[in-house]
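Quick one:
INPUT:
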């Protein structure tokens, strides 16, 4: 967002940015591509995760939460595309503008927190398997975690929910949506600094650091205890998740912070670059199904069956695949401490229990 100096006047740089159609056309093109991939991709993912994937493990619950937000953003993109193509002219009312803005940012930060939750779940299962197996209410914790994520994000975005984010630019005869914010949306510069820090620092930087540390711990554990197939899958999952952070989320949050500092303290702007980076943040909704593919063994199995990539749809083929994917889960731990796989196909660390089969 760019900030107006007062309630009725925009500086020349802001007017020039709004009059330039290059950025708006580029953003609308990105949104159109995202829409074409997002809706069918996440539609299939939601169907597989909700109706075809059992049991509903914590990772699956987190993935369903992520898919719902991705799909909501995808279905809302046509309004954003129309807005961009009209040259930043919003004709759908202030309430819908506020809803769309909160939806976009809630999707981004809920995606960040959900991927962090999945990484923590992986870390506990691989590096702390005994404590992980002793958690009796993991599903309830996952559901509570999803609710907590939304509560934290919506509290952070509260200023956007209660503010009229439309702005009439009389010089260009347009009404913007979130592209121009009045400085008095928040009382002081200090309040603006807290708001920006809550988004870029608390909701992005801290989860990113936690995610990196978790996957470093997972990979280190699997390198020393697991077979190459498990290590390769864990490495691919870590690569995809961290790529989403670096490519989709980092540019937007870094530019948000830089733009806010320059705008609030130096009356300068990085808004064109920030606007493009905001469109990149929507690309994550197209990449999330790849995260599901690497994170969940059951999701992979169901997707292959839908796409008819199995060795066959017969019961024998399914049994053979189950036996192959459950190589470690069927072993007894009487004389050794094997590395077990969880229900999602990632190694869960070494657990030695006499006369008890590992899961």
């Amino acid at each position: 967002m760019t900030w107006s100096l007062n309630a009725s006047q925009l500086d020349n740089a802001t007017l020039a940015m709004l009059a330039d159609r290059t950025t708006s056309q580029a953003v609308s093109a990105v949104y159109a591509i995202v829409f074409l991939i997002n809706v069918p991709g996440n539609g299939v993912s939601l169907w597989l995760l909700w109706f075809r994937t059992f049991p509903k493990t914590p990772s699956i619950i987190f993935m369903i939460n992520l898919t719902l937000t991705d799909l909501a953003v995808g279905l809302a993109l046509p309004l954003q595309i129309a807005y961009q193509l009209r040259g930043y002219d919003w004709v759908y009312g202030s309430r819908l503008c506020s809803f769309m803005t909160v939806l976009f940012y809630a999707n981004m930060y809920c995606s960040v927190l959900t991927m962090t939750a999945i990484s923590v779940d992986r870390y506990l299962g691989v590096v702390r398997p005994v404590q992980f197996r002793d958690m009796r209410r993991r599903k309830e914790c996952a559901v509570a975690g999803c609710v907590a994520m939304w509560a934290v994000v919506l509290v952070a975005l509260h200023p956007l929910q209660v503010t009229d984010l439309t702005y009439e630019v009389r010089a260009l005869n347009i009404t913007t949506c979130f592209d121009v914010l009045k400085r008095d949306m928040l009382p002081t510069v200090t309040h603006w600094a807290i708001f920006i820090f809550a988004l870029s620092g608390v909701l992005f930087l801290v989860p990113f650091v936690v995610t990196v540390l978790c996957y470093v711990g997972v990979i280190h554990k699997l390198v020393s205890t697991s077979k190459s197939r498990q290590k390769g899958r864990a490495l691919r999952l870590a690569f995809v998740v961290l790529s989403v952070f670096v490519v989709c989320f980092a540019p937007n949050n870094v530019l948000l912070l830089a733009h806010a500092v320059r705008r609030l303290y130096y009356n300068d702007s990085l808004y064109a670059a920030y606007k493009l980076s905001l469109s990149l943040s929507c690309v994550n909704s197209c990449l999330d199904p790849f995260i599901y593919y690497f994170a969940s063994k059951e999701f992979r199995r169901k997707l292959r069956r839908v796409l008819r990539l199995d060795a066959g749809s017969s019961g024998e083929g399914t049994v053979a695949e189950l036996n192959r994917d459950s190589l470690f889960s069927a072993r007894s731990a009487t004389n050794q401490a094997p590395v077990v796989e969880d229900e999602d196909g990632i190694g869960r660390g070494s657990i030695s229990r006499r006369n008890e089969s590992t899961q």
